[in-house]
């Protein structure tokens, strides 16, 4: 859950410090928000306010190209695996390697984001993406590509993503002031689903359906290369004065421990992450591994149809994110967020049983709307209620805890589909999050917490 770059030459104390939770240890929190005077955007266009920064414009352009490539890759990878071996077990293997790379290294990525240049991290990630997908494309074009190649490539891309997300999240509060964070997260909340979940999959489905998967990989590699060039055009931000002398900085293990202590001592954060981990366990496997086979079995022109089904999810996510970011943060922000993610998963039951394209598209659209809206609220909460000096670590723990069961979900759903019908699997995936959310809201006393910590 995530975000960006630039910044200014000065530093000031935050004006809304009272909204932050207690600090961990003896660290002093120093604001690194920009001092640049910026005109106040009209309330109806507050989502555009972050674009006043040149570095933000460059970075979001690079990220947009990159996530468009990621959206294409999700479909290209799936269809390439199916072309090599039309078996859910093989797709489970490749998806598990991707998830294992992400989960296995995300804590390291968070520690790196708090210690070294976030710009250098995301440039390195983009270079790795370009090289890995180029290798897959080359092997496919010469007819030498095998399932194990896809598994290794997926693992490498997962590791790269583990370093990208914490760095991106820790960077955004250094680009825009606190009052623009909701808008900046909304921009990503619109761009990511439009390009990664809508346009990318749709274009990939058309390209692969008309040609073959390796040509789609060539296009993806080229897009990653364009993103790399744009990132290289950005400037290294000028660092604010360190909050502590170098000789007093914590060791890696102490940093990680402090992050865990903060999460364990913050109920709304802890129980949201526990909810997310269970949500991932029951939902991601069916969507990522089984949905392609459902589409292939029930619809003609499976590659194109699969791309369009994902596109409807992406369009819904974009509208949900845009709707939330264009208004003030809900007063009951935790309750609204949990309701979006839990009740919004119910249409998965329809996905499992329907053979109607319009009905399946509508179901995925609704899921996308609620997912996009919830993600914008979540990203804003991390950046508003987590001290800046710990944001990288907490973001990495966010990904680690919430995605811990992703490899398990991917690994078991393929074999499970051999003994349990896909209809039953999708029914469980749609209904279980409602129960998980109810437990989390009650255990963390979220309704009381959001009133005690107003963010409007």
Q: What are the main properties of this structure?
A:
Growth Hormone, Chain: A; globular; mainly alpha; disordered N terminus; transmembrane transporter activity; 0% strand; 456 residues; transmembrane; 71% helix
Provide a descriptive summary of the structure in words.
It is globular and about 55 Å long. The protein has a single domain (52-237, 253-452), classed as Growth Hormone, Chain: A, CATH 1.20.1250.20. It is mainly α. The chain is built from 16 helices and no strands. The model is unreliable at 1-44 and 240-250 (pLDDT under 50). GO terms for molecular function: transmembrane transporter activity.
In short:
The chain crosses the membrane at residues 58-83, 89-113, 120-141, 147-173, 218-238, 259-285, 305-324, 333-353, 359-382, 394-413, 425-444. With 456 residues, the chain is an all-alpha fold.
User: Mean pLDDT, rounded to whole units?
Assistant: 79
- Overall geometry: globular
Helix share bin: over 70%
The SS-based structural class is: mainly alpha
Largest sheet: none
Any idea how many domains? 1
Number of helices: 16
Uncertain parts = 1-44, 240-250
Strand content: under 5%
* Rg calc: 21 Å
Quaternary state reads single chain
Secondary-structure element order, N to C: HHHHHHHHHHHHHHHH
CATH architecture: Up-down Bundle
What is the CATH T-level topology? Growth Hormone, Chain: A
CATH class equals Mainly Alpha
Fourth CATH level, the homologous superfamily: MFS general substrate transporter like domains
Please give the alpha-carbon distance between the first and last residues: 21 Å
Number of strands: 0
């Amino acid at each position: 859950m995530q975000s960006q770059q630039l910044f200014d030459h000065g530093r000031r104390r935050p004006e809304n410090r009272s909204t932050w939770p207690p600090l961990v240890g003896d660290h002093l929190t120093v604001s690194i928000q920009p001092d640049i005077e910026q005109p106040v955007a009209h309330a109806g266009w507050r989502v555009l306010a972050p674009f006043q920064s040149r570095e933000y414009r460059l970075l979001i352009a690079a990220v947009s190209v990159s996530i468009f490539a990621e959206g294409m890759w999700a479909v290209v990878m799936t269809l390439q695996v199916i072309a090599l071996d039309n078996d859910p077990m093989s797709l489970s293997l490749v998806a598990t390697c991707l998830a294992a790379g992400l989960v296995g290294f995300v804590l390291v990525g968070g520690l790196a984001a708090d210690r070294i240049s976030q710009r250098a991290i995301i440039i390195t990630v983009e270079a790795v993406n370009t090289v890995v997908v180029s290798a897959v494309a080359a092997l496919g074009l010469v007819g030498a590509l095998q399932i194990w190649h896809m598994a290794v490539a997926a693992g490498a891309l997962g590791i790269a993503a583990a370093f990208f997300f914490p760095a991106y999240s820790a960077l955004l509060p250094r680009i825009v002031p606190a009052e623009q964070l909701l808008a900046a997260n909304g921009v990503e909340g619109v761009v990511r689903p439009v390009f990664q979940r809508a346009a990318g999959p749709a274009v990939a489905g058309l390209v692969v359906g008309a040609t073959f998967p390796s040509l789609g990989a060539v296009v993806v590699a080229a897009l990653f290369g364009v993103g790399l060039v744009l990132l290289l055009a950005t400037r290294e931000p000028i660092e604010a004065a360190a909050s502590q002398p170098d000789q007093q900085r914590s060791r890696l293990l102490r940093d990680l421990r402090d992050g865990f202590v903060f999460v364990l001592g913050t109920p709304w954060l802890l129980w949201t992450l526990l909810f997310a981990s269970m949500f991932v366990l029951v939902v991601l496997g069916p969507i990522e591994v089984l949905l392609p086979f459902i589409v292939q079995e029930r619809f003609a022109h499976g590659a194109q149809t699969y791309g369009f089904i994902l596109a409807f999810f992406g369009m819904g996510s974009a509208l949900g994110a845009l709707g939330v970011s264009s208004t003030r943060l809900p007063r009951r922000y935790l309750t609204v967020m949990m309701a979006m993610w839990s009740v919004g998963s119910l249409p998965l039951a329809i996905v499992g049983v329907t053979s109607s394209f319009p009905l399946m598209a509508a179901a995925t659209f609704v899921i996308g709307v609620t997912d996009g809206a919830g993600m914008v609220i979540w990203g804003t909460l991390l950046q508003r209620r987590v001290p800046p000096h710990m944001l990288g670590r907490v973001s990495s723990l966010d990904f680690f805890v919430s995605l811990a069961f992703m490899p398990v979900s991917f690994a078991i759903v393929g074999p499970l589909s051999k003994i349990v019908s896909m209809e039953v699997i999708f029914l469980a995936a749609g209904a279980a999050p409602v129960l998980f959310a109810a437990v989390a809201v009650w255990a963390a006393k979220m309704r009381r917490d959001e009133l005690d910590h107003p963010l409007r």
